[in-house]
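Following up on my earlier thread - several people asked me to post the actual chain instead of describing it. Fair enough. Here it is, all 468 residues.
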Amino acid sequence: MKISKTIKKQVVVIGGGVAGCAAALAAARNGADTLLIESSGVLGGQAGLGIVTPLDSRVTLSGESFGGILKEISDGVCMLSEKYCTNDPDEGHHWQIAAPHIVKYLLLKLLDDAGVEIRFHSTLCDTVKEGKEIKKITILEKSGFTEIFAEVFIDASGDGDLLALSGCDFSLGSESGVYDTLKENDLDIRHNSEERYQGAVGVMQPVSIFFTMGGVDYERASALNNKHLLFGDYGITRERFENWSFANTCGFELSDDDSIPMPQGRVLVSRGTKSDVAVINMSRVVGINGADSDSLNEGEIKAQLQLIAIVDFLQTFIPGFEKSYLIQSGATLGIRETRRLRGKYLLSGGEVISCKRFDDAVARGSYIIDLHDPKGKSSAIGGSIKGDFYEIPYGSLVTDEAENLLVCGRCISVDHIAHASTRIQGTCILTGQAAGTAAAISVKSKTAPSLLDGTEVRKLLKAQGVNI
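Reply from S.P.:
Thanks for posting it. Predicted structure:
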C-alpha cells in the first residue's frame, strides 16, 4: 500500500451523516482541530442522500425541545425550506420537512463556518492500533491512499466500520431473548407470533429506499396510512391484482390470505415540501446485512427494482395517486441496523421503554420503539416509551478496547430493541454532539475518552444549550 499523503489532526470523524456532522461541529466549536471523512460527495447521510426527510425525536413527548445542535439544525432546515422549497410554510415547519439539498447545504455551511476540514469521496480501509489506542487510519481517495494520525477518533459510520476494523466487540442484529422485552413491557407483538422470534439471533431490520412523488392528493392518500388492506377494498380484487404486471415480484408476492401484498404490508406516505408532494416509505427488502458487501449489493438491486413496482402499485390501485408521478428516489439504500458497539455500558430496550435516568446521561430520546419486521411484511413491532423521554449514558459511546475511540449515531452501545428508537435522526444528532464534545474535552485534558468522567461531558453539554 503506497501512501500518497499524511495528515495529522486532533479529532477525526468517520462518516458525514447527521451524527458525524454534529460530532465534527461540536468538536471544532470546542477548539479541536477536526477532520471529517465522508465516502460520498455530500453531507447528511440518509437525510442528504436517502430522502429521509422527517427530522424526528427533536422534543420530549410533552413538547420540550432537546436543544443544542439538534435545535440549531432543525431551525435552520425550517428557515431555508420555507424560503426556498415549499409552497406551504406552516406545514413545512410543523413536519420538519426539507428537500435533501437543503439539509446538505445547511450542514456544509455549519461545518465550513466552524473550520472543519472535510474530505469527500474518501473511504476508510485500515487502522493501526497500539495497545488500546488507535494510532492512525488509512483512507482511499481518488489520488491514492492517505494516512491520518489523530488523538481521538469518532465512529459515525452508521455501520461501525471503524470500531470493527479496530477490533472492538460489537453486536450484529438481535440478541437471544431480546423480543421478550416487548412482551414484558406490553408492547405490540400482535402482528408477529412469538414462535417466529423465539430464540432468534442476528436478525436485522429490513432495508428500504425512499422516494418522492408529485401530483398526489395527500389527504386521500394519507387516510390509508398504516391500514391493513384486504382484497375487495377500493375495488382491488385478487383477479385484478394477479393480472397486474408487477404481481409476485419482490415484496408483492401473493399468499393464501386476503391481504393485499405490499412490501411493508401497508401504505406509508408523509408530506413533502409542497402540498401535492409526498415522501413514500413503502420499500422493504428483508434478510439483508448492510455490513456484508455481497448482501449489501443484493439489497441495493432488489430495492431499486422494487421502487418502480411501488410507484406503479400506487398509481394503479391507491386513491389519491391517480394523477401522481415519480420525482426522485434515494441515491443509496436505507440501512436501519448493522453493527453496534458493545461498549462500557449497553443500554437495553427495557431501560429505553421505562425511561431510565443516568447520572452521566449525555443525550435524550423520545421516539417509539420502531422495529420494522425483520422477517416479513408486518408494519412494525413496538410502541411508545412509558415516560416523557429516555436518556443515553456516556458509557454507551465509549469502550475500554480502544480508549481514544468514541461512537455516535446508529452504532452506539445499545441492544436490538433500544436501537429501534435510538437510530432516529434527532437522537443520532444528540449522540453526535455528545461524542464531539467529549472528543474536544479529551484533547484539552489529555485524557482518553474512555477514561473521561461522563458527568463532566454532561455539564459542558448543558452549558452549551443541550437539554440534558
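The mean pLDDT is 92. That should answer part of your original question.
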